[in-house]
Design brief:
Immunoglobulin-like; five-stranded antiparallel sheet; 1 helix; 4% helix; Carbohydrate-binding family 25 protein; CBM25; Ig-like_fold
């Protein structure tokens, strides 16, 4: 499986993101560069303007920044952004980060 490095210091692995599978998200963006002591993955499913099943997950500090893994619980779009313990946000300049979730079946 591939890994995707996307803008803002974010890496997702594996891609494509598949329903029922685990996806690992690494973050070394604005909050990490600003010295955040803790970073949380804020994620949900659905269209960009109406997330469902929204959750916050503490990320673990690594030598590459921060990292967390989630099990993909939906067949809808995965959306995410990041916040630190002081409630500062990195939402990719208002665009968030987003992946289409695949069924895992070949067409």
């Amino acid at each position: 499986m591939a890994r995707a490095e996307i803008e803002g210091g974010v890496i997702a692995h594996p891609v494509p993101v598949t329903a029922g599978a685990e996806v690992n998200i690494k973050y070394n963006g604005l909050l990490a560069a600003s010295g955040a002591d803790a970073v949380y993955l804020h994620y949900g499913y659905g269209p960009a303007d109406h997330w469902a099943d929204v959750a916050d997950l503490p990320m673990h500090r690594t030598s590459d920044g921060f990292e967390a893994s989630i099990k993909v619980k939906s067949n809808d779009r995965l959306n995410f952004c990041f916040k630190d313990s002081a409630n500062n946000w990195d939402n990719n300049s208002g665009k968030d980060w987003s992946y289409t979730i695949h069924s895992g079946r070949k067409p």
